[in-house]
Write a structure and sequence with these properties.
The protein is an alpha/beta fold. It has one domain: Rossmann fold. It has nine helices and seven strands, in the order E-H-E-H-E-H-E-H-E-H-H-E-H-H-H-E. It has a seven-stranded parallel beta sheet with strand order 3-2-1-4-5-6-7, with helices on both faces. The longest helix is centred in the middle third of the chain and has 29 residues. About 45% of the residues are buried. The chain binds NADP nicotinamide-adenine-dinucleotide phosphate (NAP). NADP nicotinamide-adenine-dinucleotide phosphate (NAP) binds next to helix 1, strand 2, helix 4, strand 5 and helix 7.
Length: about 250
């Protein structure tokens, strides 16, 4: 029996990168998957087909996580189609890296809106039925930037630190209702997001990582699936670092 068989999981921002691999990993473990994306339509359709080929249901929604009304519509539609929502992975995110003296109001607002408000919106839309069912899991994808701060990422570090605060506060709020809330604090993972790093920043980052390499999406997805599973039944409010030792 697959450990997530019969469950329904929402993964945000799954058209590319880490979210894509988490969606595939939970599908491999038997879960039906609803996911959203914003711009990458062909990749989203490709993922939907890949998930369906694993023998589970896949639903793809072109929805901006920053839009609460649209997020509510997606969560309600997914629940109606799949019968229930057992878990949510708040993965959608973006960077607009700049030194603070060059950072525009838009750079600040867009990063906070997607990385932090987006997670609030999905949690807000999904939490009540989970509390009523006395069961559910929310997993927020944060970053070591939110733990230690990174120069050039004042907006992103603030959003990801906020996400850790959200995780702990919500875990305290809903634990007695059977809902677990955890976060991943990721280091450098090879995706489109880190492909934008200038070569010299990449070299400098590599020197700070005890394991001597950037992570792969496959280094993240199994830990995410574990935190959604019954094997993690007593883990809540935790921030699990997956960073090759970068931020210790
Ligand atoms: P990525 O390759 O750039 O993918 C980002 C995903 O988020 C895409 O599927 C994108 O969809 C989606 N997205 C962006 N804005 C959205 C919005 N407003 N509404 C819905 N979906 C949206 O990034 P990644 O590296 O996989 O990062 C995934 C998560 O891990 C992010 O939260 C990121 O902050 C976090 N993280 C990554 C690293 C790393 O080193 N890669 C490190 C720490 C934390 P479209 O393409 O359709 O727009």
């Amino acid at each position: 029996m697959k450990e997530l068989a019969g469950q329904s999981v929402i993964v945000t921002g799954a058209s590319r990168g880490i979210g894509r691999e988490i969606a595939l990993e939970v599908a491999r473990r038997g879960a039906n998957v609803a996911f959203n994306y914003l711009r990458s339509e062909p990749q989203a359709q490709e993922l939907k087909a890949e998930i369906e080929a694993l023998g589970v249901k896949a639903l793809a929604y072109k929805v901006d996580v920053g839009d609460l009304g649209a997020v509510r519509g997606m969560v309600d539609a997914a629940r109606a189609a799949l019968g229930r929502i057992d878990a949510v992975v708040n993965n959608a995110g973006l960077t607009r890296d700049k030194l603070v003296m060059m950072m525009s109001e838009e750079d600040w607002a867009e990063v906070l809106r997607t990385n932090l408000t987006g997670a609030f919106n999905v949690a807000r839309a999904a939490i009540f039925p989970m509390m009523k069912a006395k069961s559910g899991v929310i997993l927020n994808v944060s970053s070591v930037s939110g733990l230690v701060g990174m120069a050039g990422q004042v907006n992103y570090s603030a959003a990801k630190a906020g996400l850790i605060g959200l995780t702990k506060a919500l875990a305290k709020e809903v634990g007695r209702h059977g809902v677990r809330v955890n976060a991943l604090a990721l280091g450098f993972i090879e995706t489109d997001m880190t492909a934008k790093l200038p070569a010299q920043n990449r070299e400098a980052a590599l020197k700070m990582i005890p394991l001597g390499r950037f992570g792969a999406v496959g280094d993240v997805a199994p830990a995410a699936a574990f935190l959604l599973s019954g094997a993690a039944a007593y883990i809540t409010g935790a921030v699990i670092q997956i960073d090759g030792g970068l931020a210790m």
